[in-house]
Amino acid sequence: MANLSTGRAVRLAARTGSLTTQTAGLAPSHLQANLIVLPKPYAPSFRLLCQRNPVPCPLLAESSTPGSFSTLQSHLIRDGTPLPVARDIDLRLDAPKYLVYRDGTVSHETEDISSLWTDEHVGFLIGCSYSFEGALAEAGLMPRHVAQRRNVAMYRTTIPLCPAGVFTGSTYVVSMRPYRPEEVDRVREITRAFGETHGEPIAWGWDALEKLGIRDIGAPEWGEPARTADGTGVFGKESDEGYVPVFWGCGVTPQEAVMKAGLEGVVMGHKPGHMIVLDLRDHEVYRG
Amino acid sequence: MANLSTGRAVRLAARTGSLTTQTAGLAPSHLQANLIVLPKPYAPSFRLLCQRNPVPCPLLAESSTPGSFSTLQSHLIRDGTPLPVARDIDLRLDAPKYLVYRDGTVSHETEDISSLWTDEHVGFLIGCSYSFEGALAEAGLMPRHVAQRRNVAMYRTTIPLCPAGVFTGSTYVVSMRPYRPEEVDRVREITRAFGETHGEPIAWGWDALEKLGIRDIGAPEWGEPARTADGTGVFGKESDEGYVPVFWGCGVTPQEAVMKAGLEGVVMGHKPGHMIVLDLRDHEVYRG
């Protein structure tokens, strides 16, 4: 794992089966991406869902044609030109783990979706907040789950998405990182620049739980519960040492939307936290 | 009023003081716009607020430089080119009525903001759902408030905006039009195409009231309550004749955001329903 310092190295490790864990902290400064793979008839609705909900669903790239898993059309435009997100990519193999959905419910987990991928499937890459964790760490604001080598905590919320075509009735999924209240302004400022990877937080502080409809900070629906700073207890259950939860839009939202809409057929996504890491580096996208 | 069939005619009528009423139904098929005018230091946060919340805050155009009220930079891009929104426009005079805010609260209503406009003010035009009412009418789905020559009903909701810089703590404002349940799919489809003027509805049906946090359908915060189809009672209070409320994002949202953020200094906006009508026609923007 020591050499997983580039996006390509992480992808190849996932592709060959030597990496099956979550990817927080790998290849720092490289953009990481969520994956959702939909039957072709749902693609127009999904593009519109992303346009209308760019904070939880920032669309980075998609299959250049239906069925394509290795040639992508980038939606990351800089100076009028699409930035290629990765050379040598295989959407069927390059996430360490995948979830497979059938008719809107989770069917099973796998490390390889190539046997399920058809010419009628369209893959979409959505920005991931792991992309700004390198910048937070550089600023002395290392996310706790990275320091503790855990998956981030992700929660279902009651905040509605703007509906789009077949996608109705869905809600935001959020990721959470604990920070001190006096750090929140700086955390907002640093992550604000990362427009296509969720940008600044959507809510913060303990009163955000009620606003977001999160009942139990210790029971995230995806990922792992955050621990206290000293690692001995569950964040928010024990002494919280003056930290508050800070919530960002999360690219698991499309998988939640697939379930809420009850989409028919085979849909595939990465297993939350187990991302496809891209070649793009944050300074190329946000400071280039 | 009979000749107010173009955007320019409506603007000139407002500019010369002969039009001081709301603009629903005027110049059918022409895009209508919400206005918000902010002190320059708030402009970057506002642009980001629009990017992060494109359904309630679709940014059409802004002052080409701070202080400019008649030269605009368009953000409506088609085939890589900005579409000019209007020749001969004066943001200080071309809305039939304005609201003036001081330090985040409403100060007064006026028909002319030229004495308050300074070189430090930046004007922003935001899409308005009046823009798709011509298309609805053409499809036999005439909005009731247009047929009854009333202002649309607009409501404050509890749905949070994604925060952006100084803009925190705000919520969606929505407009409402009654339709029969069996008409909702067609209404969604027709308005979906109008991406920069709020697009398809964000919620519909009586159970949407609770989701949006609207307590009283008969007491909108802006505009006028809808009436029953026969005009004799208040929609939702009397027999509703089988109609349900359908809600769209509304460009009054930025004015709500200014109040929630408590922005310092002089902020100006149109009076809700009293829009600036543009030269652009819907077929140029959405079917061109």
From TrEMBL, chains A, B:
<protein>
    <recommendedName>
        <fullName>DUF1445-domain-containing protein</fullName>
    </recommendedName>
</protein>
<dbReference type="GO" id="GO:0047820">
    <property type="term" value="F:D-glutamate cyclase activity"/>
</dbReference>
<dbReference type="GO" id="GO:0006536">
    <property type="term" value="P:glutamate metabolic process"/>
</dbReference>
<comment type="similarity">
    <text>Belongs to the D-glutamate cyclase family.</text>
</comment>
<dbReference type="InterPro" id="IPR009906">
    <property type="entry name" value="D-Glu_cyclase"/>
</dbReference>
<dbReference type="Pfam" id="PF07286">
    <property type="entry name" value="D-Glu_cyclase"/>
</dbReference>
<keyword id="KW-0456">Lyase</keyword>
<dbReference type="InterPro" id="IPR038021">
    <property type="entry name" value="Putative_hydro-lyase"/>
</dbReference>
